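Homework help board

Subject: predicted structure for assignment chain

Our instructor gave us this sequence and asked us to write out the predicted structure in token form, then describe one feature. I got the tokens but I'm not sure how to describe them. Can anyone check?
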Amino acid sequence: MALLLNIETATKNCSVTIARNGEILAYKELNNGQYSHAEVLHPFIDELLVNLKINSSQIDAVAVSKGPGSYTGLRIGVSAAKGICFALNKPLISIDTLTSLSHAIKIEKGFIVPMIDARRMEVYSAVFDKGYNNIRDIKAEVIDANSFSEYLVSNNVYFLGDGAKKCSEIITHKNAIFIENKFPSAKEMAQLSYHKYKKNDIEDVAYFEPFYLKDFVVIPEKKKKPIF
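My token output:
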């Protein structure tokens, strides 16, 4: 049996699960609209271990959401996962954030478009079919009224994630369905990480880096006018 720790910090939702063979034993998450990962991530992990009466050495592998997403959030999650793997000599598994998010809903037909908010009207997104097969690669794109028109023309398209809300004001096609309150979560990671674990699909702990998709850009503060 495989006991896996799953860590999700790509957005403002800080989420942790411990799962056995893909079945969640316990989870803890916080989505308070802020990036509180640095303060709560390690306490969450410790709390789950204590509640389950599990020693950290019993964890068989650590899975982490690799992005795209918040630069700071991803750094915190990946650093924590790598630190645990180094300390316990455990394998590291990475899970694509948008793939994980797509599993937050089930549909009978149409397409799923998970979205992570970027700057202004830009989102990180991908397109999946009802079987969660990726049919369009991940992109960083600026949304306009014609976005995803090739999928909307004859199918329902389900938009979810923290990037979907702002898109609902721009994409007004009748086949567009916007689902609220869905965020990347370690709950959706459990089955995905177990599947990778069984295939020994692991990362090099020393060299693994998050998938930022775009370079991190520091926006300089506006210079204050001198007061005379």
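Reply (TA_rk): Your tokens look well-formed. For the description, you could write something like this. DSSP finds six helices and ten strands in the chain. That's the kind of observation they're looking for.
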